[in-house]
Structures are given as structure tokens and as C-alpha cells.
């Protein structure tokens, strides 16, 4: 009987010790993370020196991935706060909440545009690499300028992404400012 109690006590102590070691192993200090980040930066800089083109492509992919992450975080009025505000209705909202909601929608629109431009840039770089031998630099520059003008006009014409309530319509994208911007582009 004594021996059995002793064995169970030792097993219990061993289990607690193992669990404590697992918990300690999981806890990482601030200095650990700093050193790990420094090592990561060193590796990235070494890769940049070895193959700068691949490093740029990887940075572009990381930027795209981060933009997607940010877009899914809090910019779509899907949070509990936003749903509660929307349930209360537009008449019950004060200027501060309207401005906050408009800011969220604006951030979402900017992030979707950023993702779209990254996708367009990658698809256009694929198509331009095929046509790399044809044409001169002037032709490419004029083509890029034309694409930029088209995209800017398209963004100005897209009213569905811009909120129509709150202070947002009175700011930058009013009809007067749109016509001024459109006339300067053309």
C-alpha cells in the first residue's frame, strides 16, 4: 500500500514537472524575439545580395499577403461594434460613429484597390516579359501612363466603393473635385 502511494506520488510529481517544462519552453522573452528578428533580417539581406530580383518578388508577395490579412481584420463592418451600430440605424448615429464607419469603409476600399493593383501589376509584368524584345522604352512609358490614367478614371467613376453618408462625400471626392481631377488627368 505504501509502495503504491509512493509510486503515484512520484508519477504525479513527474507529470507536474513535465507540464512545467512545457510551459516554460513555450514562454519566450523579449530578447529572444529581438534576436530572432535580427537573424531573420540578416537572412533576408543575404538573400537580397544573392538574388535581388527574387527578393523583390518575395517582398511584393509578402506585401500582398499582409494587405489581405489587414483587409480581413476589421475593415468590413463585420465586427460586433459595427453590427450593433448598423442595427441601431442611421438616424441614431452621431457624427463620430458615422465618421468611424466611413473610415472603415474607406480603408476597406483602399486595401481592395491595393490588392487589385498588386494583382494587375503581377499580371502585366507577366505579359510584358513576353513582349520584352519588342518596342522601345518610350512605347512602354506611354503605355504605362495610359494604363495609369485609365485606372485613375476608373477609380473616380466607381461610386459603389465610396460611402454616401456621413462626412465622406463632402471631403475629397465631391463632384466638383472629381471634375477638377478628371480635367487635370485628361
TrEMBL record:
One family from Pfam that matches here is Utp14
Q: Which GO terms describe its biological process?
A: rRNA processing
Q: Which GO terms describe its cellular component?
A: small-subunit processome
Domain of life assignment: Eukaryota
Q: Region Disordered: what ranges?
A: 116-155
Q: Where located?
A: Nucleus, Nucleolus
The protein's UniProt keywords, in alphabetical order, are: Nucleus, Phosphoprotein
Q: Where is the composition biased (Basic and acidic residues)?
A: 137-155
- What is the protein name for this chain? Uncharacterized protein
Name its species. Gossypium armourianum
Amino acid at each position: 500500500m505504501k509502495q503504491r502511494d509512493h509510486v503515484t506520488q512520484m508519477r504525479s510529481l513527474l507529470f507536474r514537472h513535465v507540464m512545467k517544462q512545457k510551459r516554460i519552453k513555450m514562454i519566450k522573452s523579449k530578447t529572444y524575439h529581438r534576436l530572432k528578428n535580427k537573424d531573420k533580417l540578416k537572412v533576408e539581406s543575404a538573400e537580397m545580395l544573392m538574388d535581388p530580383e527574387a527578393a523583390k518578388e518575395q517582398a511584393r508577395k509578402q506585401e500582398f499577403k499582409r494587405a489581405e490579412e489587414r483587409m480581413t481584420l476589421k475593415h468590413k463592418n463585420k465586427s460586433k461594434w459595427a453590427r450593433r451600430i448598423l442595427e441601431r440605424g442611421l438616424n441614431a448615429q452621431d457624427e463620430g460613429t458615422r465618421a468611424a464607419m466611413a473610415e472603415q469603409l474607406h480603408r476597406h476600399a483602399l486595401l481592395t484597390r491595393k490588392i487589385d493593383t498588386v494583382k494587375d501589376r503581377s499580371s502585366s509584368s507577366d505579359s510584358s516579359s513576353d513582349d520584352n524584345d519588342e518596342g522601345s522604352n518610350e512605347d512602354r512609358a506611354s503605355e504605362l501612363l495610359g494604363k495609369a490614367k485609365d485606372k485613375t478614371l476608373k477609380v473616380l467613376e466607381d461610386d459603389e466603393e465610396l460611402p454616401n453618408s456621413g462626412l465622406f462625400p463632402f471631403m475629397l471626392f465631391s463632384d466638383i473635385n472629381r471634375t477638377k481631377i478628371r480635367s487635370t488627368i485628361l
